[in-house]
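Researcher: Checking consistency across runs. Here is DUF4240 domain-containing protein again:
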Amino acid sequence: MDERQFWLMVQQAHELSGGDMERKCEILTALISKLAKDDAERFAHYFDAMMDRAYSWSLWGAAYVINGGCSDDCFADFRATLISCGRQSFELVLADPNRLAGDDLDEIDWFFEGVQYAVHDGVKAATGGTDYQREKAYSLQPSGMAWAEEDVYALFPKLSQKFASPSAHTQSIVKIPAGKIKRYLSRLKIWLSIIAVFAGCIIIAHYISPLLGINIKMALLATMVAVYLLLSIGVEIYRYRVRKSV
């Protein structure tokens, strides 16, 4: 596994995903899991190296403008997403973060949380459950020149025009972080789905309790176990299809 092969795998996952970040992560995990142990660990090391290269104030500023604010964890998701878009996009954006203004990727997808997990899960599968160790310690400070929040929008005029509100240049503190709102809404949908499934289990348990001659608590437990097993089987079938397609 060398750097060229690393980028070829990343590009393969990017192209096969069709722009769907969740599918991209599934494909990337499947590709890494098929590697030999040493190659999988080398892949992870190259990924870490690219994350370190992208740890710069200029790129962090671009992420800040796009998202209306950007924590360290949020910036890590941003860098991982950028890597997942392939070598050409990665190098061009590092050279000029304003190029992100011309990208079609949805604002929320730039801060997708799954890429780092995809690499971790793929390596763990390839190594039989062993966690790899970083070759270098994490950088304590980003490279380049730091910026002040009140100045960051002026540094990225193209991004500010596309993502920021008209008053963002002078009122960055009160700017509504649209990317964060979208992520919160996405998580809310997940929780609502969980609540809906739980409510469905209660309704089913209510009906099967007298049929099976058991109390409602036991019926609810049996229903939840059955639903969990069905969902687990569905997830494994989906993962199997992803692995077979790459």
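Researcher: Does this match what you'd expect to see?
Model: One thing to look at in this run: Residues 185-245 form one domain.
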